[in-house]
Every structure is written in structure tokens, then in C-alpha cells.
UniProtKB/TrEMBL annotation:
Name of the protein in its database record: Glycerol-3-phosphate acyltransferase
Subcellular location: Cell membrane
Annotated gene: plsB
Keyword field: Acyltransferase, Cell membrane, Lipid biosynthesis, Lipid metabolism, Membrane, Phospholipid biosynthesis, Phospholipid metabolism, Transferase
Membrane protein topology class: Peripheral membrane protein
Chain span(s) of sequence motif HXXXXD motif: 311-316
Length: 822
């Protein structure tokens, strides 16, 4: 018997070595730490389909990763000489063998062992294996035959698949199941225990397959024609025909053109091609791509329709995200792209990569709006993953832009119509050390007209391939279940009946809450990098320059603040120390060095002073609360702790709305108190023991750090005071919101010139608009029947409190324009 097993093992080893002369694998989860394996408990691997090639691949990857061996024996008396089993056994004869969900003998033996030995456990590790990915169904039957799909291949087809796709094999090890826990409740019924474990494994493999391959792809033409047969589109065609007095056939043809213009044509052949091209591109542009919290996506993709909602900083965003997902064994999403990207040559490639195109505005085109809504609804009900940018466009300032409700509203309305497939939003923070478009952003911030995307512009930007843009981080944030948001906003939402046109009265509240939560979770996943830290410190100085040793020390100290009270578990901090970060920024050409005998001076020169505000703004929200507390000591040597919490709490809702902070208004008080404790522990504030807190003595290093910290947020508070000052100048009921916004922008621009402020967002009109809208929401100001803003005595108190943080020079500058008394 041993001789037979030895010969058999030798033959299998020979087959495995021959197979891997051709096969190349991409593997995930293949480590003891990733799987969380207990060293004292036996390990057993389970594969979905019975196949010699699958077994050989499993053994090879187990050996490579030094995992507990798949070639060791199962802990079963008279059992097989290997520690794995197939879930589906083979039936049939010769080349017509197929897989059926019939338990294998090894499977039954393992369950019986678990029932007979209740004190013992076995770790069952499901392993999914894909020879290539999902096929391009709409191109040829050959590709359908020779790709790994939802269908099960016979032996001859499997051989051809290995020959064609063996060099693109993906293996995924998944979190182990505890045999003891699974079968514990059925210890008196072996058959029920068998069924339960089999059901869990079948469900697991199905979810992984859907996450990796995506739902079955339909023929694009069939999808487009199907949209025109939906009741909503038929009704829209009838209404448009009657309104325009046009023949229904002509309107239907227009609806078809709309659907054809919108629909993606995802091709896995194109995705594979793009994988190779993008891998080369990233190696040329970046020094590495760091991916964090990918397990959030893998867990979400198995049970839900996933909507990826990244921040939008660069045209590289959607390419990076699709690439990262594909490399981690997940199907790239369908991506909402602006119609401006549907350019010659580029548009067809993007469409085959999963992009579907949308017009910038279709409010005045109900037929187009209906077709687009129905397309979205079909995508969600079929379980496709989607991606869109809630900000609408790219951020030119480095801050998170105010979310636009359009796509979120469509998603919510689609889910209300059919919520059998749960929808989960996965926020994604994509952090660049340098964005490719930084120079064009700089021009636009200085008033230059935004350039329209074109093939020639794309060719021009190709010159950037010789430059280095540092590292990129792709951080996945905490998932948001749409049903949970709806439960909080309207717990009876499941009791209503919805159709394509119905918009419940509470829809806008649900979309607003969802928007805020998405933006906050994106910011909570921020990747702090060396450039963000150094820019934050340097931009806090008056002359944008600092002694190198002092800069290094302050960068390390502010990084320690972030570690002392971490903003979120999903954020990441840079490796190294302040000295490493300064050297790195210098190598990237973002800071200048001026040698000096008493110590080198590091500074920002020319356009870099403005460019670095972009990277400072990426992480400004992390310092918002401690900086707000620090700013209260700008003109006060000490304050009662309760007064600090109150004043910071008054400003918090406005700062939260602008920077998308994660704390709910009710949680802000605790967070402010915790930050006071941290600042006291770090020596930036002094506890006086009588309920008061004081700033350090003037001229000390601690006072320098406190004052520098306050400058991280001071410009935001100054903008608020500008608006309040102008409003009080005119008086209650004397100015409209639009006029106040315009006057505030002009005064901020003037102060920017007078005080040499390099932050373009200081006079960003949208920030003033948001602040005014929030004051209306919070009841600080109201609007009368003539559209004029009215306020009471409470506004004067808020304005007086805001002046606590302003320097004398800036108070005078505002007073000169607003003609307010000191």
C-alpha cells in the first residue's frame, strides 16, 4: 500500500511540475496570517470542482506559500492520503463527465469524523480557482468555449482552457470554516449535517464566483433593445411623441440612439489588454500602488450589488480603481463617465473597459432621462457593480467637493423599485503624492478657462510619462448599506409601492444623508503621505519657509497628534520620519533648499506655494478639530473648558459640512473633549486645575506648535467672519443670499491679495454658498417673502465669538470694508 502511494505521489509530483512549465498563477489570501489559521488545528482545503489540474495547482500554491500541506492525510481513519476534498463529484463516462452537486466520499467521511469526535475541530479552507476570467460572450463561440465562466467544463474543454488561459490563472484562498461550529447543532443527524455544510460551501463558491467573474454578460444589442421594451421608456416615447407631434417610430429611434450612446460594452479581452497596458503605465508614472482594506470589497461583493464611490482627483482614478480590483480578483465595475470622454479612439476603449456615458445635464430631456434611469435600474437588478463620482467633477483644490445628488438619487430610486438585491456603497480614497493634472489645475485656479478633453490633449499629456508622480494609495473605506440609511431616514420605506416616476417626500432627506455619509467615509479613509505632512507645516508659516531641523521636528510632532487620537481605522499614515519626508519632497521638486551656515532653510517657491495647498487640503480635515481648539487661544491666554467645548461646538456643524468630518453633531462634544486632553498631554495646552485651560508661555516651543496648529483651520474661520461681517453691515432683511455670496467672495479675494494668501479655496464662491445655506438650515438666518436674509440677536453673538480667533490686522481689514465698529 505504501509502495502504491509512493508511486502515485511521485507521478502526481511529475504531473505538477509539467503543468507549471506552462501555467502562471495570480494568488490572493495564501498566507497563515491572511487566513487566520490556528497552528494547533488540522487544515483541510476544499475545491469546488473535481479536477486533476485544480488539485495540482492547489498543491503547488500550498507548497509555495508554506501552508499546511494539501498532500498530508485527512484526520480520518482509513481516509485518503491528502488533506483536501472536492465539493462536487464526477458522474458520467469518458469525455462527457460533468459535475453535479453530489457529496464526495471524502466529504462524507470528514463530516462523520466531526460528528464522532465532538471535541475535535478541522479548519476547512475554501479555495476558488479560475482559468482566466469571464469570457467576451458577444464576440465568438471560441472565446466562450475557452474561458472559465459560470458553466462547468468537461475534460476536453478543460484541457483547451488550460492551453489557452493557463498563463492567466487566478487562485483565491478564503477564510476557513470551523467544521465543529458548522455541524454542532446537527450531531444527531448525519444527513442534515452533510446538507448544511454543503449548502454553506455552495453558497460561498457562488458568491466568490460572482465577485470575481461578475454576473453573466448579456449581448449589448439585446440589452439596448430591452431598455426600449420597458414600461417606463414606452411611456416616455408616447409622451414625447404627443408633445412634439412626432411619429412614434421616429421618437423610438431617438430613444434607441440614446440607449446605444449610454450602454457599456464590457469586454474581458479589452480588460485583459488594459491590465497589461496599465501595469506598464503605472510602472512609468508611479513608484508603487499601496492598496489598503481590500477585504471590505471582497466581503461586500459576495452578497450585494456594489457601488464604488471614489473621490475624484484625477482622470487616473477610474483606471486605477478598475486595475486594483481586477488584480485583487474582483470584476471591474461599470463606470459612469462624462460624454466628453467619448472621444474617437479613446471612447470605444473606455466603453469596452466598462464605461457607460452620460450627458452632463438632461433635465430638459425627459426621454433621455428615462432611458438613462432604466439603464441604471437594469444594471442594479442584475447585480452589476457600478462606479461613479459623487463630486461630479475633479477637485481642483484637493478638498472633497460637495456631493451632487443626481446619481445617488437614481440609485436610491432604483433600489426602492426593486430591493431584492442589496446595494452597498464602498467609499474609496485615492491619494496621489502628485497628480498628473496639477499644472492645469493651477492655471484654472488662476482664472484660466478649463480645457476641453480631446485626443490631441491626451497626446500632449503623454509627455508626462517621463516624469515621476510618486506613490499612489487606494484605501477602501467602511461600507455603507443603503437599506440601513433608508431605515434611519424612513423606517416604513418597505411598505410603500414605487414605480419609475414615484419620488417619495422623504427622498431628498435620504439622498442628503447618504451623500454626507459617503463623503465622510471617503475622507475617513484618507492616505496621509509625506507631501501632505510637509505642505501642512510649511503653509502654516508666514513666509513659507523654515529651518530644516525645526520643520522635521514639527512634522514629527503633528504626525504624533494623528497617532494619539486616530481619526479612523481606515486611514493610513506615512512610513518614516519628518527627516525622510523632507528629503522625499525635495527629490520630487516640491520644496527648495537654501544652504545656510546656521542650518539649511526649506521653503516653497513660485507656483509650488500654491500647488502645495492642494496636498495640504487632502488632509486638512484630520487636523480640523484640534486646530479649531487651538485657534480659540489666538487672542485669549486661557478659557474655561466648557467655553472651549461650546465655541468649538458652535463652529463644528459648518466645518463638518465643509470638510465632511465623520462625527455626528451629537458626537462632536466628546471628540472636542478628547482633543483637549490630547493637546494637554502633548504640552500644547496647560490644564490649570480649576476647570480652565491655558496656552503655553509666549516664546516657547509649545506655543509655536499651538499657533502653527491654529493656522491649519484659521482661514476657514476667517471666511465665516467675512460673511457674518458683510451680513451685519447690510442689516437684517437688506441683502439676498446671492448678493451676500458675491460680496463675500470679493472681500475674500481682496484679503487674499493683501495678506499674500496662497490658498485658492479661500475665495471659492461655492464654499461661501455652502456656509450661507448651512446658516439657513440651522435657523441662524431666514429668508423672507422677498428673498432677503433676516436674522436676530443670535447672529451678533456668533459673530463676536468668531472674532476671538482673528488677528488684529485681519479684523481691521474686514472692518474697513464692512464699516463695523471694533
Amino acid at each position: 500500500m505504501r509502495l502504491y502511494q509512493g508511486i502515485r505521489s511521485l507521478i502526481l509530483t511529475l504531473f505538477r511540475k509539467i503543468l507549471f512549465l506552462w501555467v502562471r498563477t495570480d494568488v490572493s489570501g495564501n498566507s497563515v496570517d491572511a487566513l487566520g489559521l490556528s497552528p494547533d488545528t488540522p487544515v483541510c482545503y476544499v475545491l469546488q470542482y473535481s479536477s486533476l489540474s485544480n488539485r495540482l495547482v492547489l498543491e503547488q500554491e500550498v507548497i509555495r506559500a508554506q501552508l499546511p500541506g494539501a498532500s498530508t492525510s485527512l484526520p480520518v481513519k482509513n481516509g485518503p492520503s491528502h488533506s483536501f476534498f472536492f465539493l462536487y463529484r464526477r458522474v458520467g463516462k469518458s469525455l462527457r463527465i460533468r459535475q453535479t452537486p453530489r457529496p464526495t466520499p471524502e466529504y462524507r467521511m470528514l463530516v462523520r469524523y466531526g460528528l464522532e469526535h465532538p471535541e475535535k475541530d478541522v479548519q476547512i479552507v475554501p479555495v476558488s480557482l479560475f482559468w482566466g476570467r469571464s469570457p467576451d460572450k458577444e464576440k465568438s463561440l471560441v472565446k466562450l468555449l475557452l474561458s472559465d465562466t459560470w458553466s462547468v467544463a468537461g475534460r476536453l474543454q478543460k484541457l483547451l482552457i488550460i492551453l489557452v488561459h493557463g498563463r492567466n490563472t487566478y487562485v483565491q484562498f478564503n477564510t476557513p470554516l470551523s467544521l465543529k461550529q458548522v455541524i454542532d447543532e446537527y450531531r444527531h443527524s448525519e444527513e442534515r449535517a452533510n446538507r448544511k455544510l454543503a449548502r454553506i460551501l455552495r453558497t460561498h463558491f457562488r458568491k466568490v464566483r460572482q465577485a470575481v467573474l461578475g454576473p453573466d454578460l448579456s449581448h449589448r444589442r439585446t440589452l439596448v433593445e430591452g431598455l426600449l421594451r420597458t414600461q417606463a421608456v414606452k411611456e416616455a416615447i408616447r409622451e414625447t411623441s404627443a408633445k412634439e407631434d412626432a411619429p412614434p417610430e421616429k421618437v423610438r429611434a431617438r430613444a434607441y440612439r440614446y440607449a446605444d450612446e449610454i450602454a457599456a460594452s464590457m469586454s474581458i479581452v479589452t480588460i485583459r489588454f488594459l491590465e497589461v497596458v496599465l501595469a506598464w503605465l503605472w510602472n512609468r508614472l508611479y513608484k508603487g500602488i499601496a492598496v489598503n482594506n481590500i477585504n471590505v470589497v471582497k466581503e461586500s461583493a459576495q452578497d450585494n450589488a456594489v457601488v464604488y464611490v471614489p473621490c475624484h482627483r484625477s482622470h487616473m482614478d477610474y483606471l486605477l480603481l478598475s486595475y486594483v480590483l481586477y488584480k485583487n480578483g474582483l470584476m471591474p465595475p461599470h463606470i459612469a463617465a462624462g460624454i466628453n470622454l467619448n472621444m474617437p479612439l479613446v471612447g470605444p476603449i473606455l466603453r469596452r473597459g466598462g464605461a457607460f456615458f452620460m450627458r452632463r445635464s438632461f433635465r430638459d430631456n425627459p426621454l433621455y432621462a428615462t432611458v438613462f434611469n432604466e439603464y441604471m435600474h437594469v444594471m442594479f437588478t442584475r447585480g452589476y457593480s457600478m462606479e461613479y463620482f459623487v463630486e461630479g467633477g475633479r477637485s481642483r483644490t484637493g478638498r472633497m467637493l460637495q456631493p451632487r445628488p443626481g446619481m445617488l438619487s437614481m440609485t436610491v430610486r432604483s433600489f426602492l423599485r426593486d430591493h431584492r438585491k442589496p446595494i452597498v456603497f464602498v467609499p474609496v480614497y485615492i491619494g496621489y503624492e502628485k497628480v498628473m493634472e496639477e499644472r492645469s489645475y493651477l492655471g484654472e485656479l488662476r482664472g484660466k478657462k478649463k480645457q476641453k478633453e480631446s485626443v490631441f490633449g491626451l497626446a500632449k499629456s503623454a509627455r508626462s510619462l517621463s516624469s515621476s508622480f510618486g506613490k499612489v494609495a487606494v484605501n477602501f473605506g467602511e461600507a455603507i448599506h443603503l437599506s440601513d440609511v433608508l431605515d434611519e431616514v424612513q423606517d416604513s420605506w418597505r411598505d410603500e409601492a414605487y414605480d419609475a416616476e414615484y419620488r417619495p417626500a422623504w427622498l431628498s432627506r435620504a439622498v442628503s444623508e447618504l451623500s454626507l455619509r459617503v463623503a465622510s467615509n471617503i475622507n475617513a479613509s484618507v492616505a496621509v503621505n509625506p507631501i501632505g505632512m510637509i505642505s501642512t507645516v510649511l503653509l502654516g508659516t508666514e513666509r513659507l519657509a523654515m529651518d530644516e531641523n525645526q520643520l522635521v521636528r514639527l512634522a514629527d510632532q503633528y504626525a504624533d497628534l494623528l497617532k494619539a487620537f486616530p481619526y479612523a481605522d481606515t486611514m493610513t499614515l506615512p512610513e518614516g520620519s519628518g527627516k525622510d519626508w523632507v528629503t522625499y519632497c525635495e527629490s520630487m521638486g516640491l520644496v527648495s533648499r537654501q544652504p545656510q551656515k546656521l542650518g539649511d532653510i526649506i521653503g516653497l517657491e513660485g507656483s509650488n506655494a500654491t500647488l502645495m495647498t492642494y496636498y495640504r487640503n487632502n488632509i486638512q480635515h484630520l487636523f480640523a478639530l484640534p486646530a479649531l481648539v487651538a485657534s480659540l487661544f489666538e487672542n485669549k491666554s486661557s478659557l474655561a473648558r466648557e467655553r472651549i467645548v461650546f465655541l468649538a461646538g458652535v463652529a463644528y456643524p459648518y466645518i463638518r459640512s465643509e470638510l465632511f468630518l465623520k462625527y455626528q453633531p451629537g458626537e462632536a462634544k466628546d471628540a472636542i473633549n478628547q482633543w483637549i486632553d490630547v493637546l494637554v498631554n502633548k504640552g500644547l495646552l496647560v490644564s490649570m486645575g480649576n476647570g480652565r485651560v491655558a496656552r503655553p508661555e509666549e516664546g516657547t516651543d509649545a506655543m509655536l506648535r499651538l499657533r502653527m496648529l491654529s493656522r491649519f483651520i484659521i482661514q476657514t474661520v476667517e471666511r465665516y467672519h467675512i460673511t457674518l461681517g458683510i451680513l451685519r453691515k447690510y442689516g437684517s432683511g437688506r441683502i439676498t443670499a446671492e448678493e451676500l455670496e458675491e460680496q463675500s467672495t470679493l472681500l475674500a479675494e481682496r484679503m487674499s491679495i493683501l495678506f499674500g494668501l496662497n490658498a485658492p479655496e479661500f475665495f471659492d464662491k461655492t464654499l461661501f454658498r455652502n456656509f450661507i445655506a448651512n446658516m439657513q438650515t440651522n435657523g441662524v438666518i431666514t429668508t423672507d417673502d422677498n428673498g432677503l436674509l433676516c436674522y436676530g440677536e443670535g447672529l451678533d453673538e456668533v459673530a463676536d465669538d468668531a472674532r476671538l480667533v482673528l488677528s488684529v490686522e485681519k479684523r481691521q481689514a474686514i472692518q474697513q470694508v464692512t464699516m463695523l465698529g471694533a
